[in-house]
Structures are given as C-alpha cells and as structure tokens.
Amino acid sequence: MTGAMEKANGTPGVNFIPLGLFNHTPAHRLLFSLVLTIFLSSLLGNGLMILLTFRDPGLHTPMYFLLSQLSLMDLMLAATTVPKMATSYLLGTRSISPAGCGAQIFLFLTLGGGECFLLAAMAYDRYVAICRLLGYAVLMNQRLCLHMSTGSWLLGAADGLMQAAATLSFPYCRSWEINHLFLCDITISSII
Question: What does the alpha-carbon distance between residue 170 and residue 13 come to, in Å, rounded to a whole number?
C-alpha cells in the first residue's frame, strides 16, 4: 500500500480535480452569473479607486495612498481564483496542476496576509491622525507610507510562501478530487 501511495504522489501529469459549486443547470447558471457580476464589480470599483487616487492631486495623502494599495490587493485577490473558476466552468475543464494549485495558494495567502498587514498600517495612520494631529505631516510622510506598504507586501509574501510550502510539502495519498468552491485553498491541507 505504501508503494501505491508513493507512486500516486510522484506521478507526473496527475492534476487536482476540483468538484466546485457549479454544474450546468439553470440554478447554477444563475449563481455563476451572480459570481461573475460581483467579480466584475469588484474589478471596476477597485480599478476606479486606484485610478482616482493617482489622478487627483488632492488625494495624494498617506490615507489615500494606503487605500489605493488596499484596492490593488483586493483587485489581485479577486483575480487569483475567479478567472480560473470561470474558465473551468465555461470550458468544462475541471483540473489544475499541482504547480498551478501551489501558485494559487501562494497568491491567495500572500494577498490575504498582505491585506492584514496593510490594514494594521492604515490603523496606525488613523491613530497618528487622531492622537498626534500636530505632528501628523512629520510622522506620516511619503517615505514612511512607502515603507509600510512595501513591508505589507513583503510580509504577506513571506506568509504566503511559508504556508504554501508547508501545505504542498505533505504527502498526498487520497483522491485527487477537491470538494471546494474555488480551486486551491489552504484548507487543501486538511484533506492531505
């Protein structure tokens, strides 16, 4: 039995098969349309927020810079799972390679973790704006905002890399079918 597990683990060309949420029924088409509408609204809203922040000189403040970074992370976070899910549904292909799954886990966790660190930076910005009002311009300068933003991205990437590596390092010995809404998630480790 151990030999069969090792063979399944090391077999090239074996892909994960997400069972997903959508089948080709009218009710599932409605759900798919709803998910696609929300996805497009998210892309449009976050894209407009980024564009507005960089085009309007009145919004070149630390708060709006951090808010534009949050919008960028949200935009990318939505783009890590929904397009693959949509193409899988539309084309009827329901598989993802282990490398693709690992990349999706890494990006999802990087952006999710980065958002948490960025929200902490935004909380600090608001703290300084409220409690240190007279020194706000000195304390929250452009350089500090850039450092906080870069730190959020890097800490999120470190978090994503560690968790993705840990998840994908476990031997996989069960069925290659994943009962998930979107393709690969950190909870894949619970079925490994």
Answer: 18
